[in-house]
Amino acid sequence: MKKVLLTFLGLLLVSPIFAQFSLEQVLSSAFPTELKASPVKNQIAWVFNQTGSRNIFLAEAPDFKPRKLTNYEGDNGQEINSITFLPNGKSLLFIRGRANNSAGEIPNPAEVQGTVERAIFKIDLDGKNLKKVVNGAYPKVSPNGNTLAYIAGGQIWTLNLDSANISPKKLFHSRGSQGSIRWSPDGNKIAFVSSRGDHNFIGVCDMVTQQIKYIDPGVDGDIDPTWSPDGKSIAFIRVPFTKDALIFGPERASLPWSIRVVDLMTGQAKEIWKAQKGVGSNFFAGGLVADNHLFWTSDNMIIFPYEGDGWHHLYSVSANGGNAKLLTPDKGEVEYAFLSNDKKTVIYNSNMGDIDRRHIWSVTASGTPKQITTGQGIEWSPVQTSDGQLAILRSDAKVPARPSVVATDGKIKDIAPEFIPNDFPSNQLVTPQAVMITATDGMQIPAQLFLPKNHKAGEKHPAAIFFHGGSRRQMLLGFNYGEYYHKAYSLNQYLVSQGYIVLSVNYRSGIGYGMEFREAENYGATGASEYNDVVGAGLFLKSREDIDGAKIGLWGGSYGGYLTALGLAKASDLFAAGVDIHGVHDWNVVVKNFIPNYDANKRAEWAKVAYQSSPMPYINSWKSPVLLIHGDDDRNVPFSETVTIAEALRKNDVYMEQLIFPDEVHSFLLYQNWLSAYKATANFFDKFLKKK
């Protein structure tokens, strides 16, 4: 017995000992979304997803002690979003359920029997009187709180919230699909966008006469109607139609977009600003997370995002026209933003000065930026209560996302720390370090390196390389602000705890590093230039003394699954195994999923390049084992992409495992499916990267 004990102790001395925690532990913290502030009370509300059980929580000044407002139980896959406080401060609205697919089916991965729907609900702030209001989406409440406007069937409907006996009615009927509902300040009119395929109109509906008027109609894509504070004018963005525009390829320049203002009394329209030709002329619709891309201030200025210097910055221009002023100069980008209660200041988050994190800033139309939060954390989704209190969501390298309030001196107080479980392994997590890798074409690519806690120079480890999806995403030096990537960061931490070295690659075509990086030449379907980053990441790890160069794996979802498959198909000699989660395998299939009228036969040259930029043409050189994971109700990447690649791999006798989730969507709705997918990923890597 003594000999056995001594042998065991000897093994402990020579074998690596890593921080040990379970995937359940690192995925256990409730993830917050939908942070909103009451317009009349010092209250905030948000949604917590607690291992699949989603509910609304409320907190009120001064102590901001959270209390549960709804009481939905179970990992049922039913999302909650679009929290909307009513102006009286007594109730709020929300949507439960996700949109239907092309077949008209609402997501139901938990196989809930009975009615599964996407509906607008109302609940009082004391937690009483929960009731379904109507089936629909995109709720917008009139300024007096009496009328709800919403979208159903591509049309705008209204409902009197003060009467339970009045049925909803269609406000009007128009060709195309209606959206972007915007109430006028006095509540007498609604502005909206009417989408007509190759052009959009800005419309205004008079709530009394129900007459429709399209303002300044043209042949372009008009979006983002924004009312002036006095309700007499509307500003909007005009994006010129481009016939040849597709997706998943660089758009560094196009026909310049512009901002126009229409006087509603006279109908006179005026272009107050236009992007310069070249850099920034293409409108980047996905750059700003806000209710609108235009902020009309109380001093008659319009603040807007623009990439004129190659970075997604804020600018201001007089509503009467003139030269635009750059408000946020520096290398870094503006992301979440809103106009303050007094309509003088835009509060936003940005990675300026801290390129792999996010902090909160503010700026007026004529001022200079003021940084509100600093440090090693990540802050996003700022809102402002009626008395000006700032609330945010935040995370850092070791503590997951949580709601917080910010004092005037910038100090941050967490308001729901109890929703991070006591056994959450913060003390066992590592802090990733920013590194720069060299792609095989010489481009410098930012990444984050995760080293085990007891890391010793020269001690050999297996390695995993992670690629985010999107590709318009950025992994950060901490828990991500997106729920999908918050979970991915958790898995990377778990792999490190199991003895892996992990490299998380912010490959070209992602956000955070400027327009030229995002719109990288020949990226995606136009040449797969990111493949240079994939191989560069592998060579970076292989050159390290602490990596076993024969045990490097790849993993990622969606666009990350695409890069995983591309790496395995073209460089199986470098990558020993991979986990491909709902990845793209033929760009022509996926482009058609987003642009239904795309016809590869009519775009033969483009389609040929797109196919050559996909993993499928290289299937004969694919040798490394792969785990394929996919939900068969995926609305982003068709399930057929996994069906097709599986057939090809089988014909070539490539070792393949599969994990399929019936009725699951792209970003898995069930916590159990995330857990199953990540356990399968870790086990698969252990099988092929830890074997002798």
TrEMBL record:
<keyword id="KW-0732">Signal</keyword>
<dbReference type="InterPro" id="IPR011659">
    <property type="entry name" value="WD40"/>
</dbReference>
<dbReference type="InterPro" id="IPR011042">
    <property type="entry name" value="6-blade_b-propeller_TolB-like"/>
</dbReference>
<dbReference type="InterPro" id="IPR029058">
    <property type="entry name" value="AB_hydrolase_fold"/>
</dbReference>
<dbReference type="InterPro" id="IPR002469">
    <property type="entry name" value="Peptidase_S9B_N"/>
</dbReference>
<keyword id="KW-0007">Acetylation</keyword>
<dbReference type="Pfam" id="PF00326">
    <property type="entry name" value="Peptidase_S9"/>
</dbReference>
<dbReference type="InterPro" id="IPR050278">
    <property type="entry name" value="Serine_Prot_S9B/DPPIV"/>
</dbReference>
<feature type="signal peptide">
    <location>
        <begin position="1"/>
        <end position="19"/>
    </location>
</feature>
<dbReference type="Pfam" id="PF00930">
    <property type="entry name" value="DPPIV_N"/>
</dbReference>
<dbReference type="Pfam" id="PF07676">
    <property type="entry name" value="PD40"/>
</dbReference>
<dbReference type="InterPro" id="IPR001375">
    <property type="entry name" value="Peptidase_S9_cat"/>
</dbReference>
<protein>
    <recommendedName>
        <fullName>Acyl-peptide hydrolase</fullName>
    </recommendedName>
</protein>
<dbReference type="InterPro" id="IPR002471">
    <property type="entry name" value="Pept_S9_AS"/>
</dbReference>
<keyword id="KW-0378">Hydrolase</keyword>
<feature type="domain" description="Peptidase S9 prolyl oligopeptidase catalytic">
    <location>
        <begin position="490"/>
        <end position="691"/>
    </location>
</feature>
<keyword id="KW-0645">Protease</keyword>
<comment type="function">
    <text>This enzyme catalyzes the hydrolysis of the N-terminal peptide bond of an N-acetylated peptide to generate an N-acetylated amino acid and a peptide with a free N-terminus. It preferentially cleaves off Ac-Ala, Ac-Met and Ac-Ser. Also, involved in the degradation of oxidized and glycated proteins.</text>
</comment>
<feature type="domain" description="Dipeptidylpeptidase IV N-terminal">
    <location>
        <begin position="292"/>
        <end position="393"/>
    </location>
</feature>
